[in-house]
């Protein structure tokens, strides 16, 4: 090859390399995960006592009838939270707790309001405490005390009541 042809050859190779390297650049898209949204809900709590209460209990395993950190059920968790944070004494059983609240639209819920579910038929059999931005905290039978997304279809299908004690 002549020097001029060799020069053109290398220019084409270099130019191709530059163009191909630009085409393989990976673009990162920020997607919010469920965990990051739950962390945001916790960070946006108005009550720092509520924040501390939830972090102290997060991960405690579920135990039917439980009322301490060796295991707690959903109504026991709501019972303790409402009593310690808001000074409200609720009945011990979720079905009775549902009867004690003033019904509220889900769109009007405030921090500390209660959300009730019926996983096993018509009667209320699960309760959680609303936080903000569609998140609530509860004692899940599978995952223990956890902050969860109320907008998940699994919860929307079984949500039967929401409201406040006052």
Structure description:
By secondary structure, the protein is an alpha+beta fold. The protein has a single domain, classed as endopeptidase domain like (from Nostoc punctiforme) (endopeptidase fold (from Nostoc punctiforme), Alpha-Beta Complex). It has 6 helices and 8 strands, in the order H-H-H-E-E-H-H-E-E-E-E-E-H-E. It has helices spanning 3-23, 34-43, 48-57, 74-86, 94-100, 153-156, and strands at residues 67-68, 71-72, 102-103, 114-117, 126-132, 135-140, 144-149, 159-164. The strands form 2 sheets. A 6-stranded antiparallel sheet has the order 3-8-4-5-6-7. Strands 1-2 form a two-stranded antiparallel sheet. A hairpin with an 8-residue loop joins strand 4 and strand 5 (126-132). The chain is elongated. It starts with a helix and ends with a strand. Residues 19-30 have low confidence and may be disordered. This is C40 family peptidase. The chain crosses the membrane at residues 6-24. It holds the Pfam family NLPC_P60. Keywords: Hydrolase, Membrane, Protease, Signal, Thiol protease, Transmembrane, Transmembrane helix. InterPro entries: Murein_DD/LD_carboxypeptidase (IPR052062), NLP_P60_dom (IPR000064), Papain-like_cys_pep_sf (IPR038765).
